[in-house]
Amino acid sequence: QKEVEQDPGPLSVPEGAIVSLNCTYSNSAFQYFMWYRQYSRKGPELLMYTYSSGNKEDGRFTAQVDKSSKYISLFIRDSQPSDSATYLCARLDSGGYQKVTFGTGTKLQVIP
Amino acid sequence: DADVTQTPRNRITKTGKRIMLECSQTKGHDRMYWYRQDPGLGLRLIYYSFDVKDINKGEISDGYSVSRQAQAKFSLSLESAIPNQTALYFCATSDTGTSGDPNEQFFGPGTRLTVL
Questions:
Q1: How large is the average pLDDT for residues B22-48?
Q2: Alpha carbon A26 to chain centroid distance?
Q3: Cβ A8–B40 below 8 Å, yes or no?
Q4: Cα R_g (chain A), whole angstroms
Q5: pLDDT, position A11
Q6: Which of B53, B55, B67, B111 is least surrounded by Cβ atoms within 10 Å, i.e. has the fewest?
Q7: Alpha carbons A44 and B106: distance in angstroms, whole number
Q8: What is the C-alpha separation between B30 and B39, in angstroms, rounded?
Q9: What is the pLDDT of residues B43-73, one digit of tens each?
């Protein structure tokens, strides 16, 4: 079992919709979880990270971690065509090296 | 004003050839990483380096080698390329962690490698 599992999609939604992207993880020891966004033909870029459990909000984006169910979620409100990208969830290695393990990514398309 | 650059951006080569992918950064970061990205498999870590004298294998280092020529340069070599090394390769950098918070990794634009 991969340490971080993610539905590859693709997910297609109309502009303005609320988008929910989800990942599951297998090791309860992880404390930090991240979401990276990758546009076509570009490298990933950090969108936001959350610590342990709870929510973190940044503009239209909300990241949520549910440790009891080992679920990581990213919600996008009022989705825009510019949000069309692949979203990768990731967890931070609990050791001192801060290595990151990525999910496979979910491709999102927001249709105008 | 690219902070992390990769060369070449695209490369087509033949089985058995030696290939070097280069990465340079102007961010002043100590830590550098090489990943490959494959459809359905996501990003997987090949090698990482936390300073010029510290190089470590990632989860899929077989068939690859690296060289950290300077703080700003980290090269990935395929000594004898094979078709299943066809992938998108990314270099990334991050700052040294001084707090408990995760350090953002900054990725280059990627190199698309095709091995025939």
A1: 93
A2: 16
A3: yes
A4: 13
A5: 94
A6: B53
A7: 8
A8: 30
A9: 999 999 999 999 999 999 999 999 999 999 9
Of A41, A88, A98, the CB nearest to B42: A88
In sequence order, what DSSP letters do the residues of A58-94 get, joined into one string?
ETTEEEEEETTTTEEEEEESS--GGG-EEEEEEEE-S
Distance CA A72, CA B9 (A): 33
Which candidate, A23, A12, A34, places its Cα nearest to that of A81? A12
Interface with A, mutate which of B37, B43, B91, B98 (most A CBs under 10 A)? B43
Residue whose token pair is 């076509």: A40
Q: Do A42 and B41 make contact, defined as CB atoms within 8 angstroms?
A: no
Tokens found for residue A51:
């610590």
**Residue whose tokens read 């002043």:** B28
Q: Which residues of A touch B103 (CB under 8 A)?
A: 98
- CB contact under 8 Å between A32 and B109, yes or no, is no
The pLDDT value given to residue B72? 96
Q: How far apart are the first and last CA of chain B?
A: 33
Q: Report DSSP state, residue B27.
A: S
Per-residue confidence at B96, pLDDT binned at 50, 70, 90?
confident
Over residues A27-56, the pLDDT tens digits come to 767 678 899 999 998 999 999 988 877 789
* B63/B76 Cα distance (integer angstroms): 11
CB-CB under 8 Å, B56 with A34: no
Cα gap A71→B112, rounded to integer Å:
32
